[in-house]
Amino acid sequence: MASRLIRRKTLDSLGLFFVAFVMVSPVILFFLWMISLSLKYEIDNGAYPPILIPENFAWSNYLKVFEENNFLLYFWNSILVTGTATLLALVIGVPAGYGIARLKAEKSAVIIMIARMTPGLSFLIPLFLVFQWLSLIGTLWPQIIIHLVVTVPIVVWIMIGYFETTPIELEEAASIDGATPWQVFRLVALPIAKPGIVVSFILALIFSWNNFVFGIVLANRETRTLPVAVYNMLSFEQVSWGPLAAAALIVTLPVLLLTMFAQRQIVAGLTAGAVKGG
Amino acid sequence: MASVSIDNPMTDAEQIGSKPPRLVPNYWPFVLPALLVVSAVIVFPWLFTLWMSLNSWTLGQPRTFIGFANYVRLVQDMRFWESLWHTTTYTALSVVLPLFFGTLAALVFDAKFPFRGFLRGVFVMPMMATPVAVALVWTMMFHPQLGVLNYLLSLVGIGPQEWIYNQSAVIPSLVIVETWQWTPLVMLIVLGGLAAVPREPYESAEIDGANAWQKFRYLTMPMIAPFLMIAVIIRSIDAIKSFDIIYAMTQGGPGTASETINIYLYNTAFAYYDIGYGSAMAVVFFLIIIALSFVLLMVRQRANWSDMEDR
Amino acid sequence: MATVNIQNIQKNYGAVKVIHGIDIDISDGEFVALVGPSGCGKSTLLRMIAGLEEVSGGEIRIGPREVSHIPARDRDIAMVFQNYALYPHMTVEENMGFALKLKKADVAEIKSKVGRAAAILGLEKLLDRYPKQLSGGQRQRVAMGRAIVRDPAVFLFDEPLSNLDAKLRVQMRGEIKTMHQRIGTTTIYVTHDQVEAMTMADKIVVLHDGHIEQIGAPLDLYDRPANIFVAGFIGSPAMNFIDGRIEEGAFRTSKGLILPLPQTLPSIPGGRDLVYGIRPEHIRASTQGIEGRAILVEGTGSELFVRLDAKGEDIACLFRERLDIGFGDTVFAEIDPTKAHLFDKQTGRRI
Ligand SMILES: Nc1ncnc2c1ncn2[C@@H]1O[C@H](COP(=O)(O)OP(=O)(O)OP(=O)(O)O)[C@@H](O)[C@H]1O
Ligand SMILES: [Mg+2]
Known about the structure:
The complex is a heterotrimer of chains A (about 280), B (about 300) and C (about 350).
Chain A: H1 2-38, H2 42-45, H3 60-69, H4 71-102, H5 110-117, H6 120-133, H7 141-165, H8 168-176, H9 181-192, H10 194-210, H11 213-218, H12 226-235, H13 241-261, H14 263-273
Chain B: H1 2-17, H2 28-52, E1 55-56, E2 64-65, H3 69-76, H4 78-110, H5 116-128, H6 131-141, H7 148-155, H8 170-195, H9 200-207, H10 212-240, H11 244-249, H12 261-271, H13 275-310
Antiparallel strand pairs in B: 1-2
Helix pairs in contact in B: 2-13, 3-13, 4-8, 4-10, 4-12, 5-8, 8-10, 10-13, 12-13
Chain C: E1 4-13, E2 16-26, E3 31-35, H1 42-50, E4 57-62, E5 65-66, E6 77-80, H2 92-102, H3 107-121, H4 136-150, E7 154-158, H5 166-183, E8 186-191, H6 194-200, E9 203-208, E10 211-216, H7 218-223, H8 228-233, E11 240-247, E12 250-252, E13 258-259, E14 274-278, E15 283-286, E16 290-299, E17 304-310, E18 313-319, E19 330-335, E20 341-344
Parallel strand pairs in C: 3-8, 3-9, 6-7, 7-8
Antiparallel strand pairs in C: 1-2, 1-4, 4-5, 9-10, 11-12, 11-14, 12-13, 14-20, 15-19, 16-17, 16-19, 17-18
Helix pairs in contact in C: 2-3, 2-4, 3-4
The complex binds adenosine-5'-triphosphate and magnesium ion (MG).
Keywords (chain C): ATP-binding, Cell inner membrane, Cell membrane, Membrane, Nucleotide-binding, Transport
GO molecular function, one term (chain C): ATP binding
Protein name (chain C): sn-glycerol-3-phosphate ABC transporter ATP-binding protein UgpC
């Protein structure tokens, strides 16, 4: 009797595994195919029926991406824009989340909800004009600043939720222990909120890295970020598929690796806040 | 409740003004930097857009105040109405399909089975992947002659499709990509809902002799309904604003067959540099999104009320 | 060390008055317990003394200094919270030394002070642990240690023992008392448990709905409660209250039960509605006195708790001797009239 029940359970869980595997297969197949495209020579990519694993791997595709397209510069641009926009967002967003939570002014976060609903383009038009007027176009600053539209709301939103759940008694204890409000924040509230900061950091990083629409308007040949650079490769017709797929993989690989390693935090952050910028 | 948030700053401002020292720490300095940044990059653009929408201004030419003329022009603009229709179908499909698959996936991932954590991790990857990169690979897969999708279809005896290169197939094709990318978000939201579902009702339903479908229909569904509603709201807002995938794959083509409002807006403002008209479009688009969110939130409220009455 | 003077302190949240003008004088080194039912305003009062809550009116003095508008960090007080409020990211040692570190005391001084406090509380071996690696009792001790290290003018406790199990609570009660006797710092201790207040305090303040019902030494409150509320709140099991009037030199209930009166009574106009109060422990089992039927019998071994139905009145008795009483038995209970109290039914005051 008992062994039958156990057998039944193993069968059930095997069945579930199978179902889950089928559901995940479009994801696996997509990325496999992406890797395959990026490692094939032109002939293999044009073959019919298509080839998944070629006889000769075209590692040169990756070299070509960097050699012919200035990709190192664009990679560096992406790091600068995303890095600066995310760090700035943490510097101003974490204290703001704290202040809003403690002021019990969560309602003011409505502004963030509305920002979330606003199409990115309606930020672009006015800021584009302002940047032109300040003659900042041609530097990375316009992109860094406009990426704040993505990163700041994510950080503030997640941090409000986080600070709301940290017990206020700890901060009262600290103020009785002689801490000034700033010390309370820096020595007590901030260390306790570290997991929340990590979550908001990762999500802000990802959504800023992936952002495309701000770049196509604000970037020129020297200031492109990776998504824009990849798109520009595509729009030159006749470009061969191998290097194109390699470029796509290079763009998204950092994010995918981050997703793999920080899966738990990302899931936590997304289910809690369910935010996405832009 | 709403009045509290409005009163708060006032009383605080008064306290700053008059002298008596405060015991409760002053939290405004913490908020101030973010307030400035948000005003500069979020609130200012809103107001500026509103103002620009009342002007006629093509970049490089003089600006003139024209009142509501841009809005009048918008109402008469057939291309706008067409893009509105494209947006509607695109959004509807991009909500329904991820919702269906995402709920299904959540139900599966809520159970225990080997490698669950790993598979869930893989399943989440599309929504984190860079949309432009994703779009690029899909474009190659959709290729009528060389694409792998037509090959796969031929294996099951279906003839070649034109996918994004065909006027009537382009929106469904884009929706496939959108669904592929955003089903995981719905899955996560619903999974969060399922995690909050208590076990006891299932045990007592078991004793009452309910079958699996009945348990799903009468226990699971009502309990995760609020989360489904959240997923619908978030998905609607994201889908209606979808830009990266459409722009990278079709730029609104072939012709204007996949031109949504957002794409048309982009073209107006940054291809034709018609800033005034583009701003008006942005304002209307924004109002449409707000209205949609509002309606969905109302539906959610109503759902909650009827929920209460049942108990 | 310092005195604490509270004068006409008030607190309202918006239109709701929570504390209605309270005066308390606490002398140097005194251990004062604030007791009262849940929601009566104990925590609010304590938090105003601590500086965590703005006062709506009145004055608080710690020593000679008016502190009601001075922030908590400058009041020279230490507080132990109900949930201990230990900093989860600091070790026991860092938790205890945090206040000194903020004062920029030097490392050696912090170490020696923390070491001394740890020795008092038996925490020497736990100094490197984090709060989550401690048991409830140990956390409680760390919270106290954090307060001791400060060497403040006043200790404040807000229901510090209510998260502990019954046995540990009794033990910690003893330890806090011992600590107070050793250090002698003025202490204000909030609890809703009157046993804690009775056993620990030099002086008890009974609060009810934001008013003070009575202030006094524990035995004062027990022997001479000012009113029905205090009489019912102090003592366990609670005092019996029986409605009735004085007629023909005896206390009679409407159903005809007659209860003995204390001799030293001021003259009371007959016909006035009164409440007769007698503690269960002041009733003896006997062969005479009130006749009743046992409707509940609970023995703990050391004592026997019996509830009697005497002519429709429910009377609780606590007997020290072992008696063979079963449910439904008829019991005679003799009241010690010198221990009986009479209260005015209308005002609730003791006569
Ligand atoms: N921030 C607040 N806003 C409005 N009313 C409050 C607030 N804080 C406390 N109160 C009210 O003040 C009264 C006293 O609260 P307080 O916390 O001091 O009670 P307490 O005596 O400590 O009770 P307990 O034994 O349950 O801890 C309660 O009725 C409570 O509802
Ligand atoms: Mg309390």
